Amino acid sequence: MNTLRITGALLALGLCITTLNAVAAETVPHKTLNANFTQLADAFEHLDLSSIEQIYTEDAVYISETQDKGIINGKANIVSLYTRFFDKIKRKQAKLEVDFRVVVRHIDKNTATDVGYYLVRFHPGADSGEPVSEFAGKFVTIFAKDRDGHWRISVDSNTHATPQFYYDAKPVPNLYYGRQFISSPHADTSSQP
């Protein structure tokens, strides 16, 4: 009789552990984190500063690939940087397409770190006569969960890389893989806006 009770208790314990593991796996916010990349891509394509402003924490830090820029502290300064960049694109009557491929994600209770590649396609204004150009890079983005449970960018860092790294990145289950630009559309990869 004791063996039967012990066996029953062990089965119940195993079922509880399995249930807890399933619940824990469901709470990993992959969809929410991935939606941030969709929001970023849309913000670039529509030159939408309000989306940029919504995605960063108040005390966010931006580390640009540009050698002549220091570390940018605070959402207001980051939005100011994007304002100048978006204004430049608008003056040229150009368009941007941006895509991301996350290849590594580290996550804990209140932070998530995504590492991957990005690709930007610059479509010059129709009157410019210039071809589409593209540039790419590597990024590390740290998201922090705020008091309201929203995951916002607290650290954003990127470097230049050849577009081939982006194209060669393989999809990783549950991680953002973008619109999946397949190849360069005869783009000039030597310049950037």
What would your notes on this structure say?
This protein is α+β, with helices and mostly antiparallel strands. It is 37% helix and 31% strand. It has 5 helices and 6 strands; from the N terminus they run H-H-H-E-E-H-E-E-E-E-H. Strand 5 and strand 6 form a beta hairpin. The longest helix is centred in the N-terminal third of the chain and has 25 residues, at 2-26. The termini are far apart.
Q: What's the layout of helices and strands?
A:
Layout: H1 2-26, H2 30-46, H3 49-55, E1 56-63, E2 72-73, H4 75-91, E3 95-107, E4 111-123, E5 133-145, E6 151-161, H5 163-168
Parallel strand pairs: 1-6
Antiparallel strand pairs: 1-2, 3-4, 4-5, 5-6
Helix pairs in contact: 2-3
In short:
Helices cover 37% and strands 31% of the residues.
Features:
5 helices; 193 residues; 6 strands; disordered C terminus; single chain; 6-stranded mixed sheet; alpha+beta
Largest sheet: 6 strands, mixed
The rounded Rg comes to 21 Å
Strands of the largest sheet, in order across it?
2-1-6-5-4-3
Helix content: 25-40%
Global shape? globular
The beta-strand count equals 6
Percent strand? 25-35%
- Structural class of the secondary elements? alpha+beta
Number of helices: 5
Distance between the termini: 78 Å
Mean pLDDT score, rounded? 85
Order of helices and strands: HHHEEHEEEEH
The poorly predicted ranges are: 7-26, 186-191
